Amino acid sequence: MFLPSKHLFQALFIFVVVVFLIFSRELTYRSPTTDTGDGSSQQKGSSSSSSGVLTSPHWTGGPANATLGFGAIYVVSTDDDKRTSSRRRERMIQAANVSEIELQIPRGPKATNDDIDRFNVAMAHTGHRLVGNGTALAWLSHIRALQSFLASDAETALILEDDVDWDIRLRTVQIPRLAEAVRTLSPPESSSYYGDLSDWDLLWIGHCGDWFNKLEDGVGTKYQTPATLERTTHVVYRDETVPDRPDLHPYTKNLLDAIELPEKRRAVHTSAHPLCTFGYAVTRASASHIVSDIAPIAHPESQAYDMALLRGCSKRGLKCYSLNPELFHHMPGKSIIAAKDHRDPKRLAPVDAEGMPQALRRNETSNIGCGFWSGDFTFSSPVELEALRQEVGRKGRCLKAVHGEEEAELVKAAAVKAAESGNSTTAATNSTADALPVEAEAEASPDSNGKDAN
User: Region Disordered: what ranges (predicted)?
Assistant: First the structure.
């Protein structure tokens, strides 16, 4: 039945008002949660502003630079077992070559038994039990990496452990989206790649997990709820590279289900209880604070380095943000620290033990969509490297045998094309250990794209 003109006008007016309210809801802050489009959201804590227009953390630019928007990337390597550490470094350098990421592996005096003994004496003086060589060497190596950073002129640094894995789309998709999300935590006028550096001290983007409580307290709907995330300052953003929910580490899946984070989303949130230091970013101010006050070698106040950083975030004033799910996770395998501490390396930590069956089934590192652990992206010549850079690193093609022979043939075709066009890189050599990024002392200067994107 046709509506009278008066009723039609009223209906159209109501429709326009409803559309306006829905649209405005997408563009402005709400309390407690703000949509940023694509199902993304931001929630500000009580100490933050809750008015104004929110810049949507959508990826609209190109790939990150060779140091992922930081001043430099430093790799933590213990160097105590030359054969093992060399193998880990070679594997990491190959992955960095394909991703076209510049790393620096600080070289310095090798930690001696006297260094470890002095560290344990300091441990005893602060009331902690003695630690094994692995725990001590890991702590000393992290501090050495931070000291190398502080000796440079870089403003920010990403610290990576040498057994981590990452997705092939790290530089092209994941980091740009993360950086834009982090920028929403800063005032709109901030133009630096990761926002105002006074707004954060530590970005915990590689970890075993941050479940908002101790692991032994439980992970899942009985222990976390949507309010768990909502109580924190956080930004939720879309990222299609997040593995499907069933393919995430079981603990991660349980957490995301409990807080009702939608599929293909990541959340940057105030750090609650992150474990492991696979990958974290620092500023000059926070790095200095960690070296001198939070995790000093001469006066350690925690049983392990990651526990010291956690204490710094929760009790010592560091402003820390965790990323869930993380971008860096250590490759499946025996515990390196456990082996050095003369513990049974086959007795995996709870997180590793829970994730190992899935990692073996997927042939992927936990929480990584298409990583390097499987060995599908190794190369032995500049031509092969250029093909992998073009098809895998830049285009994001997960060219693994498990995905079918047709895709695997693309790598061969790309290699032939690169060879025919003479488009081979000069950055790598036939010796993969000598390939870019060069293993050098921390003072090696970054290339023109390796400076802070500030």
Answer: 31-56, 419-454
